[in-house]
Amino acid sequence: MRFSFLCMGLTAMIAGTTATAHERAVEFPDTADGSVVLAADLHTHSVFSDGEVWPSIRVKEAHLDGLQVLAVTEHLEHQPHKADMPHPDRNRSYEVAEEVRASSEFDLMVINGAEVTHDQPYGHINAIFLDDANALLVEEPKQAMEAAKAQGAFVFLNHPNWLPHMPDGIARLSSYHKELIAEGLLQGVEVANGTLDGHSEHALQIALDNNLTVLGTSDIHGLVDWTHDAGTGGHRPMTLVLAKDASQAAFKQALFDGRTVAWSYDDLLGREENVKAVVDACLSLEAQPAQRNYTVISATIVNTCPVNFTLLNQSEETFQNTGDVLMVKRNAETPITVRTKTGEGQMALSFDVLNAQIGFRKALSTTLEAAIPAE
Ligand SMILES: [Zn+2]
Ligand SMILES: [Zn+2]
Q1: Which ligand minimizes its atom distance to the CA of 73?
Q2: CATH code of the region 282-372
Q3: 241: helix, coil or strand?
């Protein structure tokens, strides 16, 4: 595996932590077209804006969580620690994080970013892959977006269903956002945000309707472990990026191409082709030979991903050992006994993947196939 070194227990390398990297590593198999699946958190804070930790903790958390990409995105305008930390250079948080990553030799990409922070109708907008975050600290919000574009940044709308901005919890684009999209100044939208219970199927539909990249982020301010039970089965919301390879150039291109899936709790959200690519790489079916003259066949659904799946059987075939709703546990095998027609040939089972959303309240459908061995 690409990150198998994580299994060697890197606890000793990170002083003051008790969890091992092994039990919380985020590993997804490559997809059928050969893309690697990179786990990215593109929205985080430290004491350089309104977060509660030094940037070094962000880097160590990301390493422990098995992420491949971490963006540092301090609020530019919202600076509650300013009296203690004047923060004249808005790139400083990134520089501190990158120094820690480099000296630790973590296999982690750290990316410079910023959160441009205004009231509605502008809202909060992140720009990542910045050369100079200071250039975005300007009076006029749209000028900041133009400065981001001049640096080749990837720009996305944050938590569009945030209650202080949207009291009914329904994500909507303002005319300002529509203007940014039309002018090529906004490329993505968060459909999951870990700080604000920000799960939004409305934002997913906005992404599909406006050709925006689908993102899940932690927007972490405190500690990931305290907020998301990381290390005991939980994980921060993040974005799975389907890239040609693990380079920063391929990662950035995949973001601009919309090759992403947001992962929050056990929910996967995104464009159908991307969600299907990830789910089909996670799940496979294995069948056993028929016993005696029985046409009921023992089979196993193999899940090689750290996501629990909820499957609803839509096949003609029914199961001898369970009803139509299957709970397929993460990184585990789930046995089923299938009432087939003949007990031989190819078995094809169709499911709705209830935790995989490809549109507004619309679940992914997929088919798992296996040959029934002759003997
Ligand atoms: Zn925000
Ligand atoms: Zn934020």
Answers
A1: 2
A2: 2.60.40.10
A3: strand
